[in-house]
Every structure is written in structure tokens, then in C-alpha cells.
């Protein structure tokens, strides 16, 4: 049995408007919050305080074929075209993170040095969230 995975991109920024971040990546964010806006629970209920930073979560890919490394290679090629924008986000105080949801199966995955080098060159941090059950999770 192969493992399931989901790949997201998290973008945090001290002040950028999430709509501008979406335009910069030419993607629609699944979740977004704007710095300074009043905090809300997922059901819309107002919470105390305001968001300290802007946030966008882009749902990029998912699969149950155990080919996470291949999927990442494809996404790296797509995001390489956005390298200038990624650098702009980072230079203005933002940070980016691959968010990998991984539901373990009967085998693991190998990330060869070429892929690791390509991932590092993009300047996006890498996070893996393992899940015990076969239910897909999203950030």
C-alpha cells in the first residue's frame, strides 16, 4: 500500500495583503488572513486580538500513489518561474514553507540530492506533518 500526501505552500508576511500574495503566485489561497484584521474562528465567530501577520495557504497537490518526490520535482519547476517573487517576499520580511502532509503506508520515500538541492535553491522551508490514519489533512 502506497502512502498518501498533500503538498501546500504557506506564505507569512508582516504586512502584505493576501490578495497581492495570491496575484504574485497566480494562485488562489485556500486559507488567508490579513495582518491587522480582527481574528475569527473557522466558524466566523470573532476572537480577541488581531492577526500579527498576513498568511496564505495554497493547496498545490495531493496523491495516494507514494510518489511525493516526483510531485515535488514538478512543483519545483512551477515555482522556479516565481523565484523573483519568492525573493521579494523574503527580502521584505516574509517567509515561506512547504507544508507536506504525509500519511504513512508500507514504504517511505527517497529525496535525492538533486531534489534537495532544487528545494533549497528556491529558499522555501520544508515541513512534514505525519498522520497516522489514511484521512487527508489540510493546514
Outline of this structure?
The chain has 139 residues and is of the alpha+beta class. It is 29% helix and 34% strand. The protein has one domain.
3D structure, described in words:
- With 139 residues, the protein is an alpha+beta fold.
- The protein has one domain.
- Helix content is 29%, strand content 34%.
- It is built from four helices and seven strands.
- The chain has helices at 18-25, 68-80, 83-91, 113-122; strands spanning 4-13, 31-33, 38-40, 46-50, 54-63, 95-103, 125-131.
- The strands form two sheets. Strands 2-5-1-6-7 form a five-stranded mixed beta sheet. A two-stranded antiparallel ribbon has the order 3-4.
- β3 (38-40) and β4 form a beta hairpin.
- α2 runs parallel beside α4 (113-122).
Secondary-structure blueprint of this entry?
Elements (H helix, E strand, L loop, with lengths): L3 E10 L4 H8 L5 E3 L4 E3 L5 E5 L3 E10 L4 H13 L2 H9 L3 E9 L9 H10 L2 E7 L8
Helix pairs in contact: 2-4
Helix-strand pattern: EHEEEEHHEHE
Main sheet overview: 5 strands, mixed
What count of domains describes the coordinates? 1
Mean pLDDT reading = 91
Estimated helix fraction: 25-40%
User: What low-confidence regions span 5 or more consecutive residues with pLDDT below 50?
Assistant: none
